[in-house]
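Work Package 3 (structural annotation) set out to generate three-dimensional models for the target panel prioritized at the project kickoff. During this period the team completed the workflow that converts sequence records into discrete structure tokens, so that structures can be stored uniformly alongside our sequence database. As a representative example, we reproduce one entry of 119 residues exactly as it appears in the project archive.
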Amino acid sequence: QVQLVESGGGLVQAGGSLRLSCAASGRTLSTYTMGWFRQAPGKEREFVATIPWSGGSTSYADSVKGRFTVSRDNAKNTVYLQMNSLKPEDTAVYYCQARRILMSRMIYWGQGTQVTVSS
């Protein structure tokens, strides 16, 4: 079982920055890929970024490439999403996800954190 807790959301003006954190707890986190998703009102939840706990490579949605950076701190079991040059269209609830690499149907979600970008 994996439990995820997001934090760091808030209200920011366009062009500003925020850093989201996802604190994970579990016994075999190395078997998971961590991801960030977001969902705006009336829209589907969409992929933002992913990062494995070890090795591999990061991936990003085209809409955030060059502006967002996903990173990890294995000692703290924490994944981060640094968001720069924020735009109003980035406004959404951001969710942290843990997905089993070898059992991809095993997915865990955090409660989400609200990010609001004003124009």
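The mean pLDDT is 95.
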